[in-house]
Amino acid sequence: MASENSKVERITHVIFDMDGLLLDTEKFYTEVQEIILARYNKTFDWSLKSKMMGKKAIEAARVFVEETGIGDSLTAEDFLIEREDMLQSMFPTSEVMPGASRLIRHLHSHGIAICVATGSHRRHFELKTERHGELFSLMHHVVNGDDPEVKQGKPSPDIFLAAAKRFEGGPVDPHKILVFEDAPSGVLAAKNAGMSVVMVPDPRLDKSFHDTADQVLSSLLDFEPSDWGLPAFENSAS
């Protein structure tokens, strides 16, 4: 836990997930999936959403068609093609989540190395961050879900281990890295990589998924860097 001195003194690097954590993009996936399922007289619920969140696109698509029972009518691949058309127009409207800009700028200004590790493919990342280029330019690097080094999506640790390698002087000891995540699969991936993880889940997510994280917050606005031995905020303004 964050209260253990041995842990809080050793955090030197921070890795951020993106979707639902830094950018409010999860709602787009939900909206599109509700539209598609309505054709089959089915509804999209949060138990299914939680199984899809944070995974690579094709892995999430397989969960979607299998769990909803529409696999005979719609393949995972066809689902992705259909979903893509709708998402392309939504992604550039992505908004930054509360507290994300403040935290990124704070860590960057204090010389804490930060990066993004997202299951999003590079082309989706570009669309989602179109209006937020300056903020994301503060990241030391970005690892995407279609990166050749990411053989398996979350909850496998591949993406976080790849991210740890690319910091200056890397690979960084996993015990020195703090990960921010919103998705259960991402929290597991961080723990599987041997890293500490702060979870900022959607309030609709079942609370049983909270147990794996080292700390659970309702918003990035609630994060206190000093809890983890990181430089404290100069003031409380967001």
TrEMBL record:
Cofactor(s) annotated in UniProt: Mg(2+)
Q: Please list the reactions this protein catalyses.
A: sn-glycerol 3-phosphate + H2O = glycerol + phosphate; sn-glycerol 1-phosphate + H2O = glycerol + phosphate
Q: Name one GO molecular function term.
A: metal ion binding
Q: Which InterPro entries match?
A: Gpp1/Gpp2-like, HAD-like_sf, HAD-SF_hydro_IA, HAD_sf, PGP-like_dom2
Q: Which domain of life is it from?
A: Eukaryota
One biological process term in Gene Ontology: glycerol biosynthetic process
Please tell me whether the keyword tRNA-binding is annotated for this protein: no
Please name the CDD domains in this protein's record.
HAD_AtGPP-like
Q: Which family does it belong to?
A: Belongs to the HAD-like hydrolase superfamily. DOG/GPP family.
Q: What's this protein's name?
A: glycerol-1-phosphatase
Q: Which organism is it from?
A: Escallonia rubra
Q: Which classification does the entry list for the species?
A: Eukaryota, Viridiplantae, Streptophyta, Embryophyta, Tracheophyta
